[in-house]
Specification:
By secondary structure, this protein is α+β, with helices and mostly antiparallel strands. The protein has helices at residues 104-108, 116-121, 143-158, 196-209, 211-229; strands spanning 11-21, 25-27, 31-40, 45-51, 66-73, 85-88, 94-98, 112-113, 126-129, 132-140, 176-184, 187-192, 231-238, 241-252. It has a 5-stranded mixed β-barrel. Strands 8-9-13-14 form a 4-stranded mixed β-sheet. A 3-stranded antiparallel β-sheet has the order 10-11-12. The longest helix is centred in the last third of the chain and has 19 residues, at 211-229. The chain is globular.
């Protein structure tokens, strides 16, 4: 928790810088939601959810590096006991500015670590890794996975109880999943990436360039240019699988590289 919070607090108001928007997930309780990773002024990680990002007002739709204010409460510990997790009051989200480009590297530098095992041992479930020898890869999703995603949206749109669900256009799943092979102090890793940006970039580019040229362009951007210019991986764990780390965001310092996704 931040220096202005006590361990006894179970709700409050906070400000933080947005770093990652993960791929939207569809569930029976909340519909389509996004998990967001942010960092507050005291260099504390915060996991903000469940946020129905595409149902936010236009003025609330934050981008990477935006500074946001919001009201929160702690989740029930039997559902999520990760120390960074906050249930956010979606109506309270307010974009109040952004982190200037020239200040981003200095803001993130104290957050960089070199071992997810060490972070897990110290009770954390979000971190920022400086990967060594990163190699970007992709693999085609199975027909079963694609059908499952389509079925989730079909079920969502049939539910009359979810707020604005019938107004929601189903997101098209990309036929590929993406990830990185890399090294850190723990050894070699192969992790899938759940950052919304990469999948949306594939979908946007494939409509213009076609499949193979889009994959080539993704390799150029995420496989060569980002690592060459300086890249970090935001890592996180799932509440049900606390020992398994996944890439939740690819962060390049130097420019805002994740816009509003619709």
């Amino acid at each position: 928790m931040g220096e202005n919070e006590t361990s006894a607090q179970r709700s409050g108001e906070a400000e933080a810088v947005i770093l990652v928007k993960a791929l939207p997930q569809v569930g029976e309780k909340h519909g389509e939601t996004v998990c967001v990773a942010a960092i507050d002024a005291y260099r504390n990680w915060l996991r903000l959810y469940p946020i129905a990002f595409r149902q936010l007002e236009a003025s609330q739709k934050f981008t990477r590096w935006d500074r946001v204010k919001f009201k929160w409460r702690l989740p029930e510990t039997n559902r999520d006991n990760r120390i960074e997790s906050r249930n956010v009051n979606q109506q309270s989200i307010e974009v109040i500015g952004d982190l200037r480009k020239e200040n981003r590297a200095a803001f993130l530098d104290p957050m960089v670590v070199h071992s997810t095992k060490k972070e897990r041992a110290e009770g954390r479930s979000l971190c920022l890794i400086q990967p060594e020898s990163p190699h970007f890869f992709w693999r085609r999703r199975s027909a079963e996975v694609m059908q499952q995603r389509e079925a989730e949206y079909a079920k969502l749109l049939r539910s009359p109880d979810l707020f604005a669900a019938k107004e929601l256009i189903p997101l098209q799943p990309a036929p590929y999943e993406f990830g990185y092979r890399y090294e850190d102090n723990d050894g070699k890793h192969e992790c899938l990436c759940h950052d919304w940006e990469i999948e949306q970039t594939y979908l946007n580019w494939s409509r213009k360039y076609g499949e193979q040229e889009t994959l080539d362009k993704l390799q150029e951007q995420f496989g060569r240019r980002f690592p060459g210019e300086g890249m970090m991986l935001a890592m996180g764990t799932h509440s049900r699988y606390p020992d398994i780390w996944m890439i939740i965001g690819v962060v390049k310092i130097g420019r805002p590289d994740q816009g509003v996704l619709i």
